[in-house]
Amino acid sequence: MAPIIELRNLTKRFGKGKETVTAVDAVSFAIEPGETVCLVGESGCGKSTTGRMVAGLLDPTAGEVLFEGKSISKLDSTAFRRYRQSVQIIHQDPYSSLNPTQTIREIITAPLLRHNKVKKRGDAEGRALALLEVVDLTPARDIIDKYPHQLSGGQRQRVAVARALTVDPKFIVADEAVSMVDVSIRVSILTMLARLKQEFDVTFLFITHDLALAKYFAWEGRITVMYLGRVVEDGPTQRLITDARHPYTQALLSAVPEADPELAHHKRQIELRGAEIPSLLALPPGCTFHPRCPYFVPGQCDVAAPPLEPVAEGGRVACPVRKLEHISLLV
Amino acid sequence: MGVIRGFFRWLSTTLKLMTYNKAGFIGFLATCSILIVCLIGPFFIPLDTTTKIDQIYQPPSAEHWFGTDHQGRDIFSQIVHGGKDVIYVAVVAAFLSTAIAVTFGTMSAFAGGKIDGAIMGFTDIFLTIPQFPLLAVLAAFITLDNLTYLGIFLGLLGWAALLRAVRAQALSLKERDFVEAARALDLGTLHIVFRELVPNMMTYIVISFTLALTAAVYTQVGLVLLGLVPVSSSNWGVMISMAWTQGAIFFRDAMWRIMMPILAIALFQLSVITMTRSLELAFNPRLRTMV
C-alpha cells in the first residue's frame, strides 16, 4: 500500500535574486496510513511551510508531494478535489483561523452543505451538533449560535478541529495546534486529537517546536527534526528520544525541562558553541549546524552538506561524525 | 414567523448599537427625517406652481417657511418635491459604483496574477482621466434625461478609487488563516469572496457607500448647475441652477431662493456622513453580541 503522503525533494524558496530564502530544502519523507509523524524544529526552520505544502495551500518551488502515490500537481480536477478534502489543516492561531463575522453554526455547516455531506439542509444542524460533541464542546447547543470571539482559545481550537472533520479527512496537518492554547488544556486537546486517530481513522502530521509535546503525541509514531529547512534526523519516537544521534536533536532534548529535579540535575546539557541561529539569507556552507555544533570537525562539516543516512536502530541522520556514536543524555 | 422575529431582533440590536454614538445617531435620525420628508412629503404638500406677483422674494414667514421665489411661489414646497430625484440618482450611482468596486476589487486581490494585473491596469488608467471634464464631454453626446441612466452613468464613473481600497483590504484579509482554511475545505471562490472576505469589510463598504452617495449628489448637482444635464423636474440642483442663471446671487432679496436648496443639500450630506459613525458600530459582530 502506498504511503498516504510522501514528500520528494520538496523545496520552497521565497523571494527573488539575492534576497532568495530557501525555507524548505529538499525534504523527503513518507507517512503511512495510521502513522503519526511529528515535525519538530525551532521557529523559522520551515516546518509550517512544509505543512502548508503538504496541505496543497502553497506550491513548492521544486520537488513534489504525493497523495496515495500520485503527485498532487498532476491530479485531474476530480482527484484533486478528493485530495483537497482528504487533507485538512488545523492552524496555530485559533484567533485568526475562524472568521469573526460567522457564527459557529455557519462555520461548521458551510462545508457540510457545500459538499453534500448531509442529505437534507435540515440535517446539517444535527451533524454540526454531533461534530461539536466529538471535539468535546458540550453542550453543543450552547456553543452553536455563538461567535468565535465569545469562545476561549481552547474552545476555538476545538471548533477548528470540528470544521476540519466536516469533510471526513484522512489526513490532518496540525500546525502548532496547541501552541497558542493555555497550557492547562493542552493535554485535553491532545487527548481529543489522539482519540480522532482511532475513531475517524485519521493520520496526523503534527508540527510543533516543542519536543516534549512531540514525545507525548507521537510516542508510537515517528519524529522528524528540521533545522534551517533541512531534515537533520528522523526515526521512531522512542529511538529518537532515548538515542538521539544528531547534535541538534541532542541539543533540543537537553533543552526540554524536566519536572523532576532529581532527573533535571543529572541530565547532560549539550554545550553549543553558539546560541545564534544563522540567518536564512546567509546560510553557513556545509552542514548548516556547524557554527553551533560541539562536535564540529573543521574541513569536513563546513565543506559539504551531509546526506541523510540510515541508522541501524531505525530512521536517518544527517551527521557523519556522530552517526555511529551512541550517547545517552541520562548519565 | 421565525424569520420575521429574527429580523425584528436584528433591527432592534442594530438600532441599539447605533445609539452608542450620539453624533452618529443624530445623523441617522436626520437622514431618516430627510428621506421621509422627500419621499412621503410630496403626497401631502402640493407643489406650488401658481405665479403670485405680489409675493415675489418674500423672506421666511409662517405662511412660506422658506420664503418665495422670483414668481412668488413657495420654496418649501419645491424643496420637499426636489429631494427625491437627487436622492434616487445618488443611491443608484452609489450602489453601482460600490458593487463594481467590491466585486472586482476582491476578485482582483483573490485571483492575483494576470487578472489582477489587468483589473489594476484598467483602474489606474481610469483614475488618471479627470472625472468632471469627462462627464461634461460625455454629457454633450449622451442625453441624460432619464434619472436611472444618469445614476448608472455616475456610478460607472465613480468606482475606481474605492476598488483600489477594497483590493488593498482584501489582500490583507486573504492571508488570514480562516481564508486558508476555507481553501482547504474547497468552499469555492464565490464563498470565499462573498462569505469570508466581504463580511469582514462590511463596515468599510457601508461607509464607502455613503461617501459615494455624497459624491454622487455633488456631481449631479454640479452637472445640473453647468446645464449639462437637462433634468426637467424641479430638484435641488435645478433650483440652484435656475437661481444662478437668473442672477440670484446679485439680489439680496433672492438669498432665500438660492440658499434653501444649498442648505437642503448640505444638511443631507452632513446627516449621511455623520451617520457613518453609527454604522461602524452596527456592523461590528463583536459589539453585536454584547447587547
List keywords for this structure.
heterodimer, A: 331 residues, alpha/beta, Rossmann fold, four-stranded antiparallel beta sheet, 11 helices, B: 291 residues, mainly alpha, 13 helices, 0% strand, globular
Description:
The complex is a heterodimer of chains A (about 325) and B (about 290). With about 325 residues, chain A is α/β, with parallel strands linked by helices. Chain A is about 30% helix and about 20% strand. An eight-stranded mixed beta sheet of chain A has the order 6-7-8-3-9-10-12-11, with helices on both faces. In chain A, strands 2-1-4-5 form a four-stranded antiparallel beta sheet, with helices on one face. By secondary structure, chain B is an all-alpha fold. Chain B has a single domain, classed as MetI-like (MetI-like fold, Orthogonal Bundle). In chain B, about 75% of the residues lie in helices and about 0% in strands. Chain B contains 13 helices and no strands. The longest helix of chain B is centred in the N-terminal third of the chain and has 37 residues, at about 75-110. Chain B is globular and about 75 Å long. The mean pLDDT of chain B is about 85. The interface between A and B is medium-sized, with 34 and 21 residues.
Task: Return the structural class of chain A.
Answer: alpha/beta
- Helical element count of chain B? 13
**CATH domain topology of chain A:** Rossmann fold
Question: SS-based structural class of chain B?
Answer: mainly alpha
Read across the widest sheet of chain A, the strand sequence of neighbours is 6-7-8-3-9-10-12-11
In total, the number of strands of chain A is 12
- CATH homologous superfamily assignment of chain A: P-loop containing nucleotide triphosphate hydrolases
